[in-house]
Structure formats: C-alpha cells, structure tokens
Predict the 3D structure of the following.
Amino acid sequence: MKIAVLHDLLDRKGGAEKTLLSIARHLEDRGHDVSIFTLILDKERTFTDLVEKVNVKEVGILKDWLSYSGAPRSSMRRRLRNMFGSLDPTQQLYLLYALRTFSGLKLGEYDIIHASNYPASNAAALLKKEQGVPAVWGCNEPYRDLWLKEYSTEPYLSRAANRTVGDLLRFIDVRLVSSLDAIFVNSNYTRTLVERIYGRTSTVIYPGIDTRVYRPILDASVLKERYCPEGGSLVLTVSRLYPAKKIDVLIRAVRRLKDRGERIKLLIIGEGPEERKTSEIGS
C-alpha cells in the first residue's frame, strides 16, 4: 500500500513526532511505501535515527520564513502574541500557509492519506474531495488553541481574535473533519473530545512501547530514597517544558498540598523554552 502522511513540523522531539516516525518505520518494514510530507524537517532537533529510516519530503517554499515550532519569523512575534494570544496574526498566516501547502500536493497516486495534527487534518479532507484519495486522521488531540484553550482571562484582543477568527476556523474544522473516512485517537479521553467537538466516533489505538530499547530497571523506591529521604510522597513528571504542558499548574498544586501539611516533593524531568520560568516558579 502506498501511504502519504501529512505532518506539519518535524523539528522537535515530542511524543507525536516519535509515534509518527515509529509507525512509518514499522509500515515500511511490513512492505508498505510510506512518504511523510512536512513543512520543516530538522534532523538534528527531531529523532535523527528514526528520520533516516523513513522517506520524508519537505514541502513548501517558506522554510526560512518559519522559525522553530512553526511560527513565522518576525521581530514583532512576541509583541503580537502578547496582544492577540495564541491566534495572533502571524499564527493565522502560518495556519493558512500550512493548509494551502498541504492541500496543493498531488497525491492521486497514493492509496490513502494519513493526516497528523491540525491543519493537516483539514488538508486531508480537501485532498480527498479533490483527488479522490481516502483520508484518515491520527488525532493526538483537537487543535489546542481552537478547542482546548480558555480565553476568558486573556487580553481583550485575544478574546476578540478567538470570537472572530477562532469561530471561523472552528466552523471550517468541523465541516472538513466530517468528511474524513476514519479517525484514530491515542486515548479514551481524546475519543470523548472528538465525539464532543466533531460528533464523530473514533477508534482508540494506544501508542506502543518498543521493549527492545525501553526496559525500566529502576525501582521507584530508589527515586523516593534519593529525593524523599525523610519519607512522604514523590510526584514525577517527564515532559517538554512548553506553556501548553501547564507545568506551572502542577507546581502550584504541589505547593498547595505542602501548605496543607502534606509531605510531598515534585521532580520535573524535561527541557524547553519554559525551563527558566519553571525553575523560577518552582524555587
């Protein structure tokens, strides 16, 4: 089977990227012809060993215009994001560019299109309509900035962007997702989100674990003895330190438990742009 995979950015080490690349590798090993189409490929920032084992095609003409994580390069980016929030004008341009680039691909020779992340899911629906190729969506979660973000406490321009641009994008998203042939999700929680937002049923496929490389041999009691020698509870989180991961909420929750007299410590393992902020909050 000839499979086209649409994934907007391969420039980081995240769960979605590792799952996608691992699945593509296993499908190749089973004799399928898999091509991953992406806007940015940075072999050094993502899983180099996995990328080199699959066929990845970088598409689009504006790679140098896009920064790490996809936001358009702009000296005004931080200021615009502070004013407009997650749906600032540069992010809107990026989403439009990604949708236009993916939906303009010629994929009629493929047997199926697998979309990963938004707006690839919308592009897959357009490609299905225009080129007649069956399309499915591997949904890690509905696009967070459209469906899962709370805007009530955001600045006025951010709330305005959500009510105007956000409402339009949500309307288009629901309409296009309705035409996909199938949706696969990574958990029962995501399945409930897909059903609530899109009115679609989906199939849960849990991400696998490669037992050849992941063999936990450390007893949890060793960690507790090291970080909680006086006893109590140890909370461990392993995550990229990005705003969307809400590590600050976890820190405040643990601090509140401490204020109530609980003997508890928090161990955070990860790196990312929020590393300094996380250290400051946690100190």
Summary: The chain is about 40% helix and 15% strand. The first helix runs from residue 15 to 29. The chain has two domains: 2-204, 220-282.
